[in-house]
Amino acid sequence: MPAACLAGRRRLWLVSTTFGDVRARMRESTAAALARGFKVVRTERMRLMTVQLLERRGR
């Protein structure tokens, strides 16, 4: 299901209150779909959250 939700997306913003690896608390299938299809191009850490910009990997 996560792959279907990501289809057609070139970029996405990932917002999390988890520090460290923001994908660590995601469902395994969601984290795997993000890792397969996207790369982190920017990370901003703020006092209470982390925001990452992800872009689709080249094909």
TrEMBL record:
Protein's recorded name: Uncharacterized protein
Domain of life of the organism encoding this protein: Bacteria
